[in-house]
Amino acid sequence: MIKKILIANRGEIALRIIKTCRVLNIKSVSIYSDEDVNSLHVKKSSESYYVGSAVPAQSYLNQKRIIELALSAGADAIHPGYGFLSENSDFAELCEKNNIVFIGPSSDSMKLCGDKMECKKIMKNAQVPTVPGSFDLVQNVETALDNANNIGYPVLLKSVFGGGGRGIRLVNNDNELRNAFELATKESMTAFGKSALLVEKFLPKIRHIEFQLARDKYGNTVHIFERECSIQRRHQKLIELSPSPVVDRKVRDEVGQLAINAINAVEYSNLGTVEFLRLDDGTFYFIEINARLQVEHPVTELVSGLDLVKLQIDIANGEKIPFNQSDLKLNGCAIECRINAENTFLDFAPSTGLVKDVSIPSGPGIRTDTYLYPKCTVSPFYDSLIAKLNSWGQNFEEARKRMSNALGDFYIQGIDTSISLYKTILNSPEFIHGDLSTDFLDRFDILDRLEKNIKNEIIEKQDAALAAATLHSLLYRTKININYKQDPNWNHQMYGL
Amino acid sequence: MIKKILIANRGEIALRIIKTCRVLNIKSVSIYSDEDVNSLHVKKSSESYYVGSAVPAQSYLNQKRIIELALSAGADAIHPGYGFLSENSDFAELCEKNNIVFIGPSSDSMKLCGDKMECKKIMKNAQVPTVPGSFDLVQNVETALDNANNIGYPVLLKSVFGGGGRGIRLVNNDNELRNAFELATKESMTAFGKSALLVEKFLPKIRHIEFQLARDKYGNTVHIFERECSIQRRHQKLIELSPSPVVDRKVRDEVGQLAINAINAVEYSNLGTVEFLRLDDGTFYFIEINARLQVEHPVTELVSGLDLVKLQIDIANGEKIPFNQSDLKLNGCAIECRINAENTFLDFAPSTGLVKDVSIPSGPGIRTDTYLYPKCTVSPFYDSLIAKLNSWGQNFEEARKRMSNALGDFYIQGIDTSISLYKTILNSPEFIHGDLSTDFLDRFDILDRLEKNIKNEIIEKQDAALAAATLHSLLYRTKININYKQDPNWNHQMYGL
Amino acid sequence: MESSNVWVMTEYKIKNIDKTGHAKIIKQISTMEYLVNINNNEKIVNILDVSEDYIEFKLDNVYHVARIIERSTSEIKILIDDVSIVLNTNYGLNEIVYKNSGGSITDSQINLISQIPGKVISVKINEKEEIKKGDIVCVLESMKMQVTVKSHKDGLVKKINAKTGSTVAKNDIIAEIE
Amino acid sequence: MESSNVWVMTEYKIKNIDKTGHAKIIKQISTMEYLVNINNNEKIVNILDVSEDYIEFKLDNVYHVARIIERSTSEIKILIDDVSIVLNTNYGLNEIVYKNSGGSITDSQINLISQIPGKVISVKINEKEEIKKGDIVCVLESMKMQVTVKSHKDGLVKKINAKTGSTVAKNDIIAEIE
User: Fold this and answer.
1) What's the pTM value of the predicted model, to 2 decimals?
2) ipTM here
3) What's CA B335's distance to the chain center, in Å?
4) What is the rounded distance in angstroms from the CA atom of residue B47 to the CA atom of residue B30?
5) CA of A146: how far to CAs of A131, A140, A152, A185, in Å?
6) Is A172 on the interface with B (CB under 8 A)?
């Protein structure tokens, strides 16, 4: 039985894990870099240790040092959170070697999930549909042409050395493919000294829908419903919800079963997520398995009632999943907005520094997971995710309205955030009608709408701003501040300038 | 359709109602006294109006002024919250006369609920069991003796002019009753010029269990499960939970039906609560109907998923309840702690003044309803309830652990609160085992335990306190404060005193 | 370095539990790190943040926050992790009498002081009357609640300042009892 | 009373929407209450709380909070109910040029300034090169994200300060473009 968990992470997810540790009477050990001396996860854990300098390689990615700290603190398990070492199979292996329980899948299973090509082949055998395209690297232009004609144009020519949208070319016919192949090979050889290309079907207007899975060490597997994560920018999720507006019970059963097959095929253990693309015609294609707790796990917690971190720990302890698929009931609807420290109009550039003041929303159906507190600092060394605002409602519309209001109540002074952007998205008719896709922001010119909304807000607030400026001028010039309330002569003072 | 609601209340319940108004796109009008100029309900409502001086009679109880404000602001409805005018049938009538929707029962129905003797008679006819005793005032000692012998000793002799535990005498036999009757009559005649006495069965070790009811204008009635509110001090509820540990499905169905019969019998409309006493042998006795939204409504919201304020407004709008009894599913368990501004060891005396700092708990399963914010003031003119901390869990134990941790995260600087008391109660084995009763605090010497817990905490923290005092002395004496971090010579300065 | 031995070794009386403890700074390890001796155990303190009325630190890797509520030459009132502790620097000369903070409150042997602001609902004693400790002196109303104020001692009621219907502020003298 | 007519009538330029507006305090009704004229409409202001960088008030019974972020003799930057508004006191003499706060950022016509701290991943231009407005100058990494810095104007690259692998602070000059 796990008694003490080292949390190899920081920020809101470290706090989230600490909360479940406290409920389970498990001691939590936190680690912190120079940047995080005054972070909330240090304050809320049972013990904390300095791990290294601000640069992640020296601290939250410093495998050797983290293992040493776990051993010296007597931690019997490590929770990696998300990001950092959470999908590093070497680290999972290092934990195993040191007899420390890694709260996640085995290193072998994680390795499989991380190898996209290998994983795609396994899915083919497990009859889980993947995006049409090559199952191996295409070594020459003839194979590429064969593949392309098999699946039909348009296709994407992808370099495996790319990532995040780089090194991807859209081609519409044989001629374009020939040209693109030559260019891509040359480019890759120059940059990396080797070339490795893939051909994949180009899919327009897609939705990102994923299933939350849990699998224990005895092979019992359940899915805990889907999450739709189509609202993205630069392939990064912004807003997630459960259920998806295009998944009904029948689809949930069918695609949920595919997800179960997928995770069984890699002999996965613990919690994981199977990601799919969904086309407008209702086709689902497997993309990948995320071998960790996801950022957006709270929406699943809100509609299932489960504590997913507890479930992770229970499975890591060798316990059986204490329910069957049929025991799980999807209750209401949940939405998450990832509050990022960024300036939407500066091309989403990070915004860091002192958070002068913060006021955190609460009330019916609202859950806020955040590491912010008044006078804390947002560091440029780490992820820009500063808070996760979640809402729950009996239905999508109630959840949406609650979220919209909670966004208005979330006050963060001193840094730029994505809150205004989310207000615009949440109140867009297309979002209200569930017309989601990964290109939602571009398709509906959301940034232009946001700009218009901001101008309208300014117009709406101009009278108040003028009143404030004028009255403040008066009070500022006369140097009468808050204390004037106590002064019975204030009336006269004001005019006797 | 209601478009604008004046909220004739303050504090957390005003904020709670505003939140639902915002979800429903209804404008909220708040009112404030001199004490509440800087209160959060003023800041969060659509409009706000000054209502009068700090004394409730001049402000939140000032019926005429409130009606005037509602009319001039164009509010088509008034929500009374709880306390203040919420159960004042004259005010409900005044609203009706002015064509303002009173969000609550009709004045006639409210009048019936308020008349305890009349209500008891109606319940007798509706076959809802009431506490054994006289149904009329006992005019002479012979009737009192008859009644007492009918129901069996021990009995309570109660003066209707008492209230809150005053004017109640416990008697064990005919002789004691004769003496008590004489004394009570004399006392009442001296104090009030008239005497009115009741005989009621004395019930030891009772639980307070109530049912949340909703009834629309067409007579459709549902109960939304029970709440157990047995943890009390001086007949005031401190902690409430749903479900009750002693109510199973069968009892819920049976007593829920009694509650439905009770509320049908007074032709109630809107949300109300039917309160029962439960004896150790499982007998339930009707006590009274609370003709308003209750303080503890969030626990019902958490286990039912309903927004009870929305349901109130829908019913007031003449809508039918959109679900049947069988649609309602009790989901998990919820607990509420009423955080009061009071000093437990000064006989629960109110503690008022500036709240220097506050940090509000959040996270999985936690909901906090409060009017506190950093640097706000708790006024001595109004109720000592400053926050309602609610937790939800899949079962009682998860809800309890989450609550226990959230209590630890609730930091309120500047005033005394009941948080420490609740930590002691929540972690008492008797609470964990559900051994609740209205005399819980006395029965288990909770205040003594709290004192011991505080001593243990001090012993546990003494090393840290000594370290803090010593290091602070060092830094304080040398006048080196937070800025020393930037000073590379600090090391030397420290020793060069 | 030894010129300021005030902080080198300090003995404290922990009022709330009527015990003594001592603390000594052995050495400064680095800018933010100290080796200390607390009640004969060596421990490491890492200071995370400090200001004139505030200190955040780790003691043997466990986080603590101490807010200095009041500080005089002989007494420090600290709120440590939300636990209130009063420490007296104990010079071994004058024993500080332990007073129970619960129950009734006195600022001297004579004056009965109100701990809360409120309206006087009723006065239960008369001047020149002999009363016992714990007898109800008056009833105050504050925050919709009735609060009884009880005598802190046996004695003769010399003067009653509280009048029915009037209001009292916190720390007002309700009565003088000799 | 008329000696200080500065505040009696003020005309403002609302930068963000390129409009003007005016405000006038007509009279003080009571200590906390004023009658004002805003854009030719009379309104009542009730002040709820005020300090040197903060004012809470009701305007015709609707609550507002204004935080004064920056204040000079000619410009006031206000955060009103979480909406950022910049006002210029407009004396009708010098027109203040409206600058779009989106897009690339300059502090003069020459310097290209970094809006964020970060590590320089790659530099995409060379000194003496002619570049166009919007061309990518360099790529910064901050918070795990790559951020492109684009040129704010057409021109000749006079000097590049950013070097691959080095770090830049907020407001550092990345390049000089003539």
Assistant:
1) 0.86
2) 0.83
3) 13
4) 6
5) 16, 10, 10, 18
6) no
